[in-house]
Specification:
- Helix 4 runs parallel beside helix 6.
- The strands form two sheets. Strands 2-1-3-4 form a four-stranded mixed sheet.
- It is an alpha+beta fold.
- The chain has one domain: Glutaredoxin, CATH 3.40.30.10.
- The model has no long low-confidence stretch (mean pLDDT 91).
- Helix content is 51%, strand content 17%.
Length: 167
């Protein structure tokens, strides 16, 4: 009886992941070198007096896609982010089927960002205009139900703007 229950629960979980992945826009470019992506974002942010936020995750992660969708549909959050950050989706693919070079590149990227994977995905890494990690945000603190809480997300972004950090 227990085996059947767990089998049904596993099937429901897999179906939910498939549905989430097919209905939300994929935002992670799986062909970009993540180190180069981060370096380019830092250079652009420095020139504009902004910080960088790396949303680390992947198209395989339903919560990553939900956050991207949530952000894109909220004018207040979009405005705050666009004014203060270079916001990038940094792809992380832990599958060895991608080849040893990509696996090593993913490890290097995670080390560059102070190993944020320990918080799960998505995880947000705030870099200053020199590319230094100044904060890692566990996304679970921003969640509410099956989505995200606007006030918590706004508070997170407001607390890590260049103006807030340099007070």
């Amino acid at each position: 009886m227990k085996k059947r229950f767990f089998a049904v629960m596993f099937a429901v979980f897999v179906m939910a992941m498939v549905i989430a992945q097919t209905t939300l826009k994929k935002v992670y470019d799986e062909n970009v070198n993540p180190i180069e992506q981060i370096d380019q974002a830092v250079a652009k942010a420095k020139g504009e007096g902004k910080f960088v936020i790396c949303q680390v995750g992947g198209n395989w992660c339903p919560w990553c896609l939900r956050f991207a969708d949530f952000m894109s549909k909220d004018a207040d959050i979009s405005k705050l982010v666009n004014e203060n950050f270079e916001y990038i989706h940094v792809n992380y693919n832990p599958r060895k089927s991608e080849g040893e070079e990509k696996v090593q590149l993913a490890k290097t990227m995670l080390q560059r960002l102070s190993n944020p994977e320990r918080f799960g995905f998505p995880v947000f890494v705030v870099l200053d205009d020199m590319g230094k990690v100044i904060h890692i945000q566990d996304s679970s603190f921003l969640e509410e139900g099956e989505g995200y809480n606007k006030e918590k997300v706004l508070r997170f972004f407001k607390n890590w703007t260049p103006q807030a950090v340099r007070k």
